[in-house]
Each structure stands twice: as structure tokens, then as C-alpha cells.
């Protein structure tokens, strides 16, 4: 069974640019979660999508947004990139509410 | 609000020695509890989970954890550490209700294994 897949693995952007990260969940999983792992800040919850709808959002500005497609894959968009957005962005999926979340290997975003 | 504390930032053990990683949580009710492991450059791998029932849970790679409600703890143990266990370990708590479904993580414990 294929795990959670994320693309790209690495990205380098400059301040003010926009970026899109992609995530494909485990087959059969309907929920997708996004987390940010920044140096010194730990793992922080960003967004939760389920059945195509945004269900919950962490304490991040509106320039962090995303969507979930009918096939349950998801995109995370970050506009007006800032230096502090440099981080590993992790996507996870689960088969439903309160089920274990399984993580992909992440996208490492570097802002110059 | 829920929170998780992992008191030890770094731990070094000798190969073959036993291991215990500490995790304390703050939550209003019985939470869902998880341990994940992250190797360098990789994502998080689920080691084990506690939802309810038996307070001693077994996971993959020979790990186990014990839920102690009175101490608000969920410590991870392994009887004999292997060099391949060197990684960063995260304890996480999830809400046992319909209020958001996100995980709150501890700061992590980096495990180093001496030969």
C-alpha cells in the first residue's frame, strides 16, 4: 500500500513569491492535514481538510491556504513568502475522525 | 487547550541498554495519545497509539508505552536499543471529541545511540 506522497521534495523561493505544495493521501483516506516543522518552533498544525472542506485551521495568517480535490489529494498554497516560512511542510492523512494520522516525507521549503 | 511536554531534549544511551522517553500532557479529558519517530530528512512514522482500554500499548520496532492517567504521562520504552533507533521522537495528543482533530506535538527528544 502506497503511503502519503508529497511533491516536490525541495523548493527554493525568494521573499514575496508564491508556492504550491502537493499531497496525495493513502488510498481510502478522506482526511488530509498539513503541519509546519520550522527550526525552533516544532511541529505546528496548519490545516485539516475532509471530504473537500476545510474543517479546522491552526494559528497561521490567511496567506496560508489550501484545498482538497474530489480524489482527496490536497494542495497547500503560501502567498507573499516570508523568510520565516522556511520549514519542512508535512502532510498527513487519516481514514476519519480521531483515527491515526500517517505522514509523508515532507516538502522542504527554503526562502532566500 | 491541550499541550504536550517532552522534558528531555537529548538522550544518549548505549546500544543494548534500555530506553525510556518521557511525555507529559495536559488535556481536559482522556486524550488520544501517539508516539512518532522521525529519522533525518524523513517524515514522521507512527510507532504506537493509545485510544482507550489497556494502558500498556505495544507498537512497532519493539517499542511500548504506558498511559498513566494519575501522572498525565505516556512514556515510551524499549528494553534494548539498537543503533538504528537513533532518531527524533515525538509524543502527540489528539482530541477525543469532534473539536478539530489536529495533533498537538511535544518538542521532541533526540536519541543518540553509542556503540
Secondary-structure blueprint:
The complex is a heterodimer of chains A (112) and B (115).
Chain A: E1 5-7, E2 10-13, E3 19-24, E4 31-38, E5 42-50, E6 53-57, E7 64-68, E8 74-78, E9 87-94, E10 102-103, E11 107-111
Parallel strand pairs in A: 2-11
Antiparallel strand pairs in A: 1-3, 3-8, 4-5, 4-9, 5-6, 7-8, 9-10, 9-11
Chain B: E1 3-5, E2 10-14, E3 19-21, E4 24-26, E5 32-38, E6 44-50, E7 56-58, E8 64-68, E9 73-78, E10 87-94, E11 104-105, E12 109-114
Rounded radius of gyration of chain B (Å): 14 Å
Give the C-alpha Rg of chain A: 13 Å
SS element count, helices of chain A = 0
Using CB atoms under 8 Å apart, which protein chain pair has the greatest interface? A-B, 25 and 26 residues
Kindly report the average pLDDT value of chain B. 92
Query: Which overall shape of chain B is indicated by the principal axes computed on the Cα atoms?
Result: globular
Global shape of chain A:
globular
Sketch the major β-sheet of chain B: 6 strands, mixed
Major sheet characteristics of chain A: 7 strands, mixed
Q: Topology as H/E string of chain A?
A: EEEEEEEEEEE
How would you describe this protein?
The complex is a heterodimer of chains A (112) and B (115). Chain A is 0% helix and 54% strand. Chain A has strands spanning 5-7, 10-13, 19-24, 31-38, 42-50, 53-57, 64-68, 74-78, 87-94, 102-103, 107-111. In chain A, a hairpin with a 3-residue loop joins strand 4 and strand 5. Chain B has strands at residues 3-5, 10-14, 19-21, 24-26, 32-38, 44-50, 56-58, 64-68, 73-78, 87-94, 104-105, 109-114. Chain B is globular. Chain A binds chain B through residues 4, 6, 31, 33, 35, 42-43, 45, 48, 50, 55-56, 58, 90, 92, 94, 97-98, 100-106, and chain B through 32, 34, 36, 41-46, 49, 51, 90, 92, 94-96, 98, 100-108.
Amino acid at each position: 500500500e502506497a503511503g502519503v506522497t508529497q511533491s516536490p521534495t525541495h523548493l527554493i523561493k525568494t521573499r514575496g513569491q508564491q508556492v504550491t505544495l502537493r499531497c496525495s493521501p493513502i488510498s481510502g483516506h478522506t482526511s488530509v492535514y498539513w503541519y509546519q516543522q520550522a527550526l525552533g518552533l516544532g511541529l505546528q498544525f496548519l490545516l485539516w481538510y475532509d471530504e473537500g472542506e476545510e474543517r479546522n485551521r491552526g494559528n497561521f495568517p490567511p496567506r496560508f491556504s489550501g484545498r482538497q480535490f474530489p480524489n482527496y489529494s490536497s494542495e497547500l498554497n503560501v502567498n507573499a513568502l516570508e523568510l520565516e516560512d522556511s520549514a519542512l511542510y508535512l502532510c498527513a492523512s487519516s481514514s476519519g475522525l480521531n483515527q491515526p494520522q500517517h505522514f509523508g516525507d515532507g516538502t522542504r521549503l527554503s526562502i532566500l | 487547550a491541550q499541550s504536550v511536554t517532552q522534558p528531555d531534549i537529548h538522550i544518549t544511551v548505549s546500544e543494548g541498554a534500555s530506553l525510556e522517553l518521557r511525555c507529559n500532557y495536559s488535556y481536559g479529558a482522556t486524550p488520544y495519545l501517539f508516539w512518532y519517530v522521525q529519522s533525518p530528512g524523513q517524515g514522521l512514522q507512527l510507532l504506537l497509539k493509545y485510544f482507550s482500554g489497556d494502558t500498556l500499548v505495544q507498537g512497532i520496532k519493539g517499542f511500548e508505552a504506558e498511559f498513566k492517567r494519575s501522572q498525565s504521562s505516556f512514556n515510551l520504552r524499549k528494553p534494548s536499543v539498537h543503533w538504528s533507533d537513533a532518531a527524533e521522537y515525538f509524543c502527540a495528543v489528539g482530541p477525543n471529541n469532534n473539536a478539530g482533530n489536529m495533533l498537538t506535538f511535544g518538542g521532541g527528544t533526540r536519541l543518540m545511540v553509542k556503540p
